[in-house]
Amino acid sequence: GELLVMQPQNAQAHWSLSRAATAADLTHVNEMQAVLTRFPPKAPPTAYLYYGLGKEYEDLKMWPEAFKAYEAGASVRRAQVQFDEEAETKTFEALQDTFDTSWLAAAGNGCEDASPIFIIGQPRTGTTLVERILTARDDVYSAGELQQFGLAVKGMSGAANPRMISAETVRAAAGIDMKALGEAYMKTTERLRADLPYFVDKLPSNYLYAPLIAAALPKAKIIHVTRGAMDSCFASYKQFFAEAYFHSYDQAEMARHYVRYHTLMDHYSSVLGDRMLEVRYEDFVSNTEAEARRITDFLGVEWQDASLDFHAQKTAVTTASVAQVREKTHNRSVERWRQFESELAPMTEILAAAGITR
User: Fold this and answer.
1) What is the pLDDT of residues 165-198, one digit of tens each?
2) Of the residues 7, 18, 49, 202, which has the fewest C-beta atoms closer than 10 A?
3) How far apart are alpha carbons 207 and 235 in whole angstroms?
4) Please, are residues 146 and 203 in contact by the beta-carbon 8 Å criterion?
């Protein structure tokens, strides 16, 4: 709010303000609409205003207005980012072809450190809520969303492709010494984790590396958080991401990405078995204590009541979930996409054609 007093045209500050609280009336909407008229159409800063408007219209249950705003924001963002869908498709195919049961069986010994807990999945699916359940404990530190595992894979694979992950990197990564990979990850994260017995690495896209994590760090825990496909896709579509998830600004691209992710994680589930725990967002918010206890059992630690008071934690949240984790779990976001069912038909149709119905 203070920044807007000094810089009333600051689109990013308006967006941040819209995310910080639930809109009660149209006051801030009208302010953002006025600022919007001062930019040329499709100017990059307008994306912030459109996403801010979408959020507040949604708060006010003005569904058609909300969707129009999200769509306008996504259109501006899509023009700003480079998304190579063909390269992504090849990467996912390489992951599935390379990391199978026989690869894992032959991968050799890893680094025996038991402190990492990886929380993986799509963004906006409850990964932060699951993390807060764990970091409310006195023996688990939140290290945030770390890039170190992917960087270690890329560096040790020796692949020349400039992308963080590519089909070339994937194929080269199959031959990395897994113990060395685990040790490299532990070394590069050393200054980013506290002196507690466990730490959480909550980078959602680490799901790409799940079998590599299992091989490199055989005692690490991997928790895969899932959410209904349409809620998941819509939650990403309506979110302004900084430098990630470039597939999320177009309905069809978002849905096709989700199909690739879903197919890959089905494969990984069969490869990893009980090395990876699946937590469904819908189960988590409807029966938080039971799910929290299931997660605690998976970690092999004693139950701590603090896990159920996670919303009282004072530590900073730097992800898009800042508002949600300050309150107790609720199911208000479950099936939220249905308010926009007709507008989201392009997304629904692609998921349905792939047999993904929930």
Assistant:
1) 999 999 999 999 999 999 999 999 999 988 899 9
2) 7
3) 18
4) yes
Distances from the Cα of 357 to the Cα of 24, 60, 130, 236, 354, angstroms: 34, 29, 24, 18, 9
Q: Which amino acid is at 298?
A: F
Alpha carbon distance 293, 120 (integer Å): 19
Beta bridge partners of 55: none
Q: Which residues pair with 188 in a beta bridge?
A: none
Answer yes or no: is pLDDT of 319 > 90. Answer: no
Angle at alpha carbon of residue 38, lines to 33 and 39, rounded to 5°:
100
Q: Kindly state the average pLDDT of the residues 44-71.
A: 97
Q: How far apart are CA 98 and CA 171, in angstroms?
A: 7
Q: Which two tokens stand for residue 312?
A: 């009282």
Per-residue model confidence as pLDDT tens digits over 264-302: 999 999 999 999 999 999 999 999 999 999 999 999 999
Sequence-separated contacts (24+) of 291-297 with Cβ below 8 Å: 292/133, 295/130, 295/133, 295/134, 295/223
- Rounded-to-integer distance, Cα 211 and Cα 93, Å: 15
- Contact yes or no for 87/191 (Cβ under 8 A): no
> Would you say the pTM of this structure is higher than 0.85?
yes
Half-sphere exposure of 143 (CA within 13 A, CB side): 28
Alpha-carbon span 44 to 94, nearest angstrom: 35
The first and second tokens of residue 343, run together, are 């507008």
Q: What is the pLDDT at residue 314?
A: 54
How many Å apart are CA 337 and CA 222, to the nearest integer?
Answer: 28
Distance, in Å, from the CA atom of 56 to the CA atom of 31, rounded to the nearest integer, reads 12
SS3 142: strand
Give yes or no for a contact between 309 and 326, defined as CB atoms under 8 angstroms apart: no
pLDDT value of position 5: 53
Terminal-residue alpha carbon distance, the chain: 39
Q: What is the mean pLDDT of residues 101-127?
A: 96
Q: Whose CA is closest to 46, among 8, 2, 91, 77? A: 77
The 10 Å Cβ neighbour count of residue 159 is: 19
